[in-house]
Amino acid sequence: MKPALLGMRGFKSPRAKTIKEELKQDKIMLIQEIHAAHQTWVAAQAHFEFAVDKDQIDYTIYAMEAAEKRFEMLIKQAKRLGVSLIDSDHLMEV
């Protein structure tokens, strides 16, 4: 029995290569989103440090919580897909 990605003669089909490339691109995009979400979360924490009145404090707390939830959601998605951020440099350079 041949693996699903192999063609009739046991060779990889061109479609298999495109699927693999699409998966790689999806993983790269997810890693980039995780980095951006982390930067947003750190920026929201910094804004909290400089909030002065009650409205600013309320807004920055809301922004921090939203950024943290988005970051956590993306990390869970990466875990489900088996994406390791430790290997992200290798994934992006190839």
Describe the SSE topology.
Blueprint (H helix, E strand, L loop, with lengths): L13 H36 L4 H28 L6 H6 L1
Helix pairs in contact: 1-2
Folded structure, characterized:
InterPro entries: DUF2508 (IPR019644). It contains three helices and no strands. It is mainly alpha-helical and about 90 residues long. It has one domain. Helix 1 runs antiparallel to helix 2. The two termini are about 30 Å apart.
Average pLDDT reading:
82
Main β-sheet description: none
Order of helices and strands: HHH
Structural class: mainly alpha
The multimeric state of the shown protein is: single chain
Low-confidence stretches: none
The tally of domains stands at: 1
Q: Cα-atom Rg, whole angstroms?
A: 20 Å
Please report which band the strand proportion falls in: under 5%, 5-15%, 15-25%, 25-35%, 35-45% or over 45%: under 5%
Number of strands: 0
Proportion of helical residues? over 70%
Q: How far is the N terminus from the C terminus? A: 31 Å
Shape: rod-shaped
H/I helix tally? 3
Features:
94 residues, 3 helices, 0% strand, rod-shaped
Précis, in short:
With 94 residues, this protein is mainly α. Helices cover 74% and strands 0% of the residues.
